Amino acid sequence: MVKIRNITSLILEHFPMCCAEDWDNPGLQLGREGAPVTRVLVALELTRDVFEEAREWGAELILTHHPFIFKPIKSVTDASCEGRLLLDLAEAHIGLLAAHTNLDSVPHGIGEKLARDLGLSGLRPVVGTRPFEAYKIVTFIPEADAEQVVQAMHAQGAGCVGQYRDVSFWGTGEGRFTGDASSHPAIGVAGEPERVREVRVEMIVSSRELGAVTRALLDTHPYEEPAYDVFKLESQVHGLTDVYGFGVAGRLAEAVELSDLISRVREVWQIDSVRAAGDPHRRVLQVAILNGSGARYLGKCAAQGIDAYITGDCGHHDFDAARRLGIALIDAGHYDTEKCIPDILADVLRQSKYGAELDVRVSTRMENPMRVYGA
Ligand SMILES: [Zn+2]
């Protein structure tokens, strides 16, 4: 039976907490970690309609992009609409989990999807970091126990390289040791020299999993003093030392007029109207996109030679700054640049090891809280 804690771990494995912005509040917001889950409703954010949909359908968990509990709250009572919604959730035994800027920042995620929708290539983050480092862990295990130890290390994430998992190198040799009188050797006798056929196993491991992998090794290795070495690697390992970051910048196949790019944005993401600063006839080639609310990176985009920046939640002063910086700014809407995120989250659950045990549905009652009139 899948528990809420399993889904939380899975989501945080895909979208690590350390990659969230400091001001953010993703993760499990409400619920008992041990509660069973069979149905998960996914939405951009929690609303009364989404809650009703989850309750009617019998979902035990709602997974959203925007954290409902965002700023610190002092009480949860029926005196506020937020409190009433949280109480209703708790009374209906529905948990609430969010993946927010930790989702935004992962490589090959929402930013890359939006960039590919527009036909950009040569993709890179507008603001990027490498949060994880690559290590190699080497251990020496008696032949009879090697399989069990290695499987336990794999289960914690050792040996993942790009599209490959359970990657390891094995070589056999002889281990020699003599325990002192107080030792309790798993093989041989205290005080007597011993020789054992051992396997040397090498695996790549990310700094993210190094602690868990080392614990798995120590917990399953039969020796009183297991021998293992950990080396920090200078090489970049695909899928393990990837660049995380916010926003994706890239290049169109050929320069187009700003008005053409705007038409493409509206068509590809089915947006009724957008707001933009910049001469509609100016040529644009280098384009950056940041889903949601990204005006704070306008200066960074301009400094990187971006011709047009697409994001949401832009205000008058952002458009004014864009005019001053000579960069075109397209406000495609917070909702419209993020309405595909529930599908991304749903796919993570469906394609996971829990997929067969879960019924996952994207909310049919989520909608843009803002409507445009006169477009
Ligand atoms: Zn958002």
Strand order of the largest sheet: 5-10-12-13-14-11
Bound heterogens, unique: zinc ion
Spell the H/E element sequence. HEEHEHEHHEEHEEHEEHEEHEHEHE
Q: For the residues shown, what is the average pLDDT?
A: 95
Q: Beta fraction of the residues?
A: 25-35%
- Per CATH, the superfamily of the largest domain is NIF3 (NGG1p interacting factor 3)-like
Describe the protein's architecture and organization.
Helix content is about 30%, strand content about 25%. It has about 375 residues and is α/β, with parallel strands linked by helices. It folds into three domains: about 5-105 and about 340-360, NIF3 (NGG1p interacting factor 3)-like (Udp-n-acetylmuramoylalanyl-d-glutamate--2,6- Diaminopimelate Ligase, Chain: A, domain 1, 3-Layer(aba) Sandwich); about 110-125 and about 245-330, Udp-n-acetylmuramoylalanyl-d-glutamate--2,6- Diaminopimelate Ligase, Chain: A, domain 1 (3-Layer(aba) Sandwich), CATH 3.40.1390.30; about 135-230, Alpha-Beta Plaits. It has a six-stranded mixed sheet with strand order 5-10-12-13-14-11, sandwiched between helices. It has a five-stranded mixed sheet with strand order 1-4-3-2-15, sandwiched between helices. Strands 7-8-6-9 form a four-stranded antiparallel sheet. Strand 2 (about 40-45), helix 2 (about 50-55) and strand 3 form a beta-alpha-beta unit. It starts with a helix and ends in a 13-residue tail after the last strand. The model has no long low-confidence stretch (mean pLDDT about 95). It binds zinc ion (ZN). Zinc ion (ZN) binds near residues 66, 292 and 334. Zinc ion binds near residues 292 and 334.
